[in-house]
Write a structure and sequence with these properties.
By secondary structure, the chain is mainly alpha-helical. The chain has 6 helices and 4 strands; from the N terminus they run H-E-H-H-E-H-E-E-H-H. The chain has a two-stranded parallel sheet with strand order 1-2. It binds a DNA duplex through helix 2, helix 3 and strand 2.
DNA sequence: TGATTGACCAACT
DNA sequence: CAGTTGGCCAATC
């Protein structure tokens, strides 16, 4: 709104992630303007369960494509199931062909 | 109110 | 190659 914090910006970006796509914390953080805020993205996800809107945090992974934070979804295989449910293959807690499913906000949302 | 942590990333040693 | 440090913002102790 008038003064959206990083926190809210992260929510907006994550919410706009297309189905069957994934992005990384660093990509969002850099899109917001600071790579250092990547930790803030994780913080936002941690509080996402407290947020009023639903945040597809399962589409957000680290820069390796590893399902970091899967433990926060309520189960170790919940995140994997969600991603597979969208057509994304996950193996060994890592997204298969992460590059193909990678959705960069700095390239898609940058206007 | 100050210090620490947090689902990370990149660079340096 | 692996471990450490710096960085960013917000929330918790």
């Amino acid at each position: 709104m008038a003064d959206p914090s990083f926190f809210e910006k992260v929510y907006e970006v994550v919410r706009q992630i297309p189905c069957g796509r994934v992005t990384s914390y660093g990509a969002i953080a850099r899109y917001l303007g600071s790579a250092g805020s990547s930790r803030m993205v994780g913080w936002a996800m941690n509080s996402s369960h407290s947020h009023k809107n639903y945040i597809p945090a399962h589409r957000v992974v680290n820069r390796n494509g590893t399902l970091t934070g899967k433990h926060h979804f309520g189960g170790p295989n919940v995140m994997k199931q969600l991603l597979e449910s969208e057509g994304i293959k996950v193996e060994n807690n890592t997204i298969v062909e992460f590059k193909k499913h990678f959705w960069d906000p700095a390239s898609e949302l940058k206007y």
